[in-house]
């Protein structure tokens, strides 16, 4: 009988082995499905970028075929991407996929979702922002995500918005890149979710570990060669692993379908985004059973080398303190990875994998240490039984807590990063919350302000647009600040400032004007302020205000032309959507603080969703692996527990001992994992916050939640020991 036939025969006659095999297959299926989903995320972002890359001007190349600009707009909280183009040659321009034609002057192509919105809202709130006639719609092949709001506006070259870039065509799909943040999160997910899945697989395989070990040892003593024993184990494990991998492949389309419903970057996904290349899929599906088989075969050392010892179930060798070195070594690797300047995230993922792996190495030693303390100091029967178990088999005792420890590490890491990311939000404090502004060219500021006011009057709105310039103030000691050029009463209305306006030309925000000069362009020597210009105080309205100085137009020296101009209007007493439409006459991006904060909140919302999904998955996997490991622990010691119950030991006392086995190492390990997760989170944050010098990590009391919940999950999962003990009591010991 070959090993495969023997494995099927064991499955037919042994119900406990069947249960273990089914659970192992489920664990492999979960791991395979998660790996296929997480590895597909970078490919999904690549597919998104390839469809939408044409919406961005290609500043890396130049040409003479067309002019292009891109602007972002917003309508009732939904972002709109506006692309303005104009042909400058008679040669045909290659069109991106999903764009049916190149719009001529006065023609507009819109996405289906934008087309519906334009007809659902009054023209003054949306449609009037796009001058011309809608002549077609973009297909899904031209959109980043379903329901994206996009407008492709055609112009004559002379009517193009400010800042138009001349190029030979739209940006090609080959320039598309993977979303770096989601790519990093996918790599982190592979490490922190697949490892608990493999722990679930290992826990499932332990359900019949003792019985299988005795069976293999008997075969070895009866003359079976090491190769034959290895073949039998490979066949038994391979059946579950292969079935699980194929099951994971079968359910992966369902997981991908669910993933398309999770928003990221402003919208959901197209179903085709999550398609993995066939070679990658085959590699991952084959790799999962191979990993399980390697782990199973590696666990045969004792049976192969010492079958008599396996049958006699000798006490394992005590663990050595050198295991504790794994944690600082992994920490150093992770530290150098996050402080390095590698453009690839692989060093960080390697360091994170080592940190997670170090928990598996250090955990059994901590369990052994806890067991020694309880054996020496505890005198109650349940505590003594639990302590003796932790001393005799710390690896097996820790196995029930391994998944929970990893879940706590993940939770602590997430609860360190999320408040820190939220602390980075805010800013954008030039204008008041109710103000809309538009950057314009100096030679167009007056005309665009007049056009905006004409529109506002035609729409019946109270708001009026104001022209604002920026100049540079330089002192004799080298100080250099930017000043907004506008009347004091308008500055009080539009800027985040509290000013005490008085008649006469003045500069607000500079204490002593002696030696100060005014220039319109960077690098110019500047012109002195006229005699009689007063210095007056400037008080920020709040900490978000970023304006340093305000210069009254009457104080601007003759011949100084501001380098930058903006047109701004307050929406107080007016319809914000209509005011936005009136300012959109130039086709540029209309800025407002709510848009700035909405982008930040959208990013934070994406991270929250991903974090919650990851934590729920990790908690479920941890709970399942802990419950299965506890049940396996009872089955491994069926003879011992049967003898104790036959001698009169109550099931209630044994249940307390088993719960203590789960709680004691879980308490120490979860506290350690919580601290590790916090440190890993701080390391990742230090890498992500680059470019935000004033950002600092935020630690909250919620960091204790994963530790408390992890301990609760471990104890709750250990409650399966009571039914398992009752089953042992109901079965005759002769079955062994």
From TrEMBL:
Bilayer topology: Multi-pass membrane protein
Keywords of the record: Cell membrane, Membrane, Transmembrane, Transmembrane helix
Broad class of where this protein is predominantly found: membrane
Subcellular location: Cell membrane
Gene Ontology CC terms, in alphabetical order: plasma membrane
InterPro entries assigned to the protein according to its UniProt record, in alphabetical order: ABC3_permease_C
Residues annotated as transmembrane: 21-44, 181-208, 229-256, 276-300, 321-342, 348-375, 396-418, 612-635, 662-688, 700-721
Keyword Cell membrane: yes
Coiled coil, from the record: none
Location of the ABC3 transporter permease C-terminal domain: 190-298, 613-732
Domain of life: Bacteria
Official protein name in the record: ABC3 transporter permease C-terminal domain-containing protein
């Amino acid at each position: 009988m070959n090993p495969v036939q023997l494995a099927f025969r064991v499955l037919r006659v042994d119900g406990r082995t069947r249960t273990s095999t089914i659970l192992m297959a489920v664990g492999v299926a979960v791991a395979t499905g998660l790996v296929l989903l997480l590895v597909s995320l970078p490919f999904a972002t690549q597919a998104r970028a390839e469809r939408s890359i044409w919406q961005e001007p290609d500043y890396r190349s130049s040409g003479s075929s067309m002019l292009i600009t891109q602007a972002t707009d917003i309508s009732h909280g939904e972002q709109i991407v506006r692309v303005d183009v104009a042909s400058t040659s008679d040669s045909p321009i290659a069109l991106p996929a999903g764009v049916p034609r190149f719009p001529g002057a006065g023609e507009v192509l819109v996405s289906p979702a934008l087309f519906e919105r334009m007809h659902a809202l009054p023209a003054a709130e949306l449609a009037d922002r796009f001058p011309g006639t809608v002549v077609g719609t973009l297909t899904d092949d031209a959109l980043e995500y379903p329901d994206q709001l996009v407008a492709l506006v055609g112009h004559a070259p002379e009517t193009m918005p400010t800042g138009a870039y001349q190029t030979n065509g739209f940006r090609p799909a080959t320039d598309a890149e993977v979303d770096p943040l989601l790519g990093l999160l996918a790599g982190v997910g592979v490490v922190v979710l697949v490892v608990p899945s493999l722990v679930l697989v290992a826990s499932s395989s332990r359900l019949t570990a003792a019985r299988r070990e005795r069976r293999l040892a008997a075969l070895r003593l009866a003359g079976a060669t090491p190769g034959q024993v290895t073949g039998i184990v490979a066949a038994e494990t391979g059946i579950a692993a292969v079935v699980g991998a194929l099951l994971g492949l079968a359910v992966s389309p369902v997981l991908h379908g669910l993933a398309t419903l999770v928003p990221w970057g402003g919208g959901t996904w197209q179903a085709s985004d999550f398609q993995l290349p066939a070679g990658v899929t085959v590699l991952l599906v084959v790799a999962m059973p191979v990993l399980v088989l390697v782990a199973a075969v590696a666990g045969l050392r004792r049976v192969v080398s010492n079958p008599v010892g396996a049958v006699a179930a000798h006490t394992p060798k005590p663990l050595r303190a050198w295991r504790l070195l794994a944690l600082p070594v992994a920490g150093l690797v992770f530290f150098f990875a996050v402080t390095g300047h590698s453009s690839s995230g692989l060093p960080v993922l390697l360091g994170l994998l080592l940190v997670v792996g170090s928990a598996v190495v250090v955990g059994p030693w901590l369990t052994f240490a806890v067991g020694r303390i309880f054996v020496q100091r505890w005198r109650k029967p349940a505590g003594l039984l639990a302590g003796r178990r932790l001393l005799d088999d710390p690896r097996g005792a820790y196995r029930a807590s391994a998944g929970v420890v990893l879940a706590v590490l993940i939770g602590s890491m997430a609860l360190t990063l999320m408040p820190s990311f939220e602390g980075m939000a805010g800013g954008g404090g030039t204008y008041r919350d109710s103000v809309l502004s538009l950057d314009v060219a100096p030679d167009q500021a007056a005309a665009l302000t007049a056009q905006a006011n004409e529109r506002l009057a035609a729409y019946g709105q109270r708001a009026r647009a104001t022209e604002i310039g920026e100049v540079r103030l330089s002192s004799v000691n080298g100080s250099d600040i930017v000043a907004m050029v506008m009347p004091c009463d308008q500055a009080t209305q539009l800027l985040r400032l509290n000013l005490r306006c008085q008649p006469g030309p003045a500069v607000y925000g500079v204490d002593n004007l002696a030696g100060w000069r005014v220039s319109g362009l960077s690098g110019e020597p500047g012109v002195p302020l006229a005699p009689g210009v007063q210095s007056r105080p400037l008080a920020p309205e709040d900490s978000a205000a970023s304006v340093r100085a305000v210069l009254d137009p009457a104080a601007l020296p003759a011949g100084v032309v501001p380098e930058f101009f903006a047109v701004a209007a307050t929406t107080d007493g007016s319809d914000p959507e209509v005011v936005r439409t009136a300012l959109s006459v130039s086709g540029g991006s209309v800025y407002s603080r709510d848009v700035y904060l909405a982008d930040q909140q959208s990013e934070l919302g994406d991270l929250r969703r991903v974090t919650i999904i990851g934590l729920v998955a990790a908690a479920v996997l941890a709970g399942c692996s802990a419950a299965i490991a506890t049940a396996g622990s009872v089955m491994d010691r069926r003879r011992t527990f049967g003898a104790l119950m036959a001698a009169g030991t109550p099931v209630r006392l044994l249940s307390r001992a088993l719960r203590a086995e789960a709680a004691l190492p879980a308490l120490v390990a979860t506290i350690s994992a919580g601290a590790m997760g916090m440190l890993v989170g701080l390391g990742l944050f230090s890498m992500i916050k680059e470019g935000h010098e004033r950002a600092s990590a935020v630690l909250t009391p919620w960091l204790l939640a994963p530790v408390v919940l992890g301990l609760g999950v471990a104890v709750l999962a250990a409650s399966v020991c009571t039914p398992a003990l009752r089953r042992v009591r109901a079965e005759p010991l002769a079955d062994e």
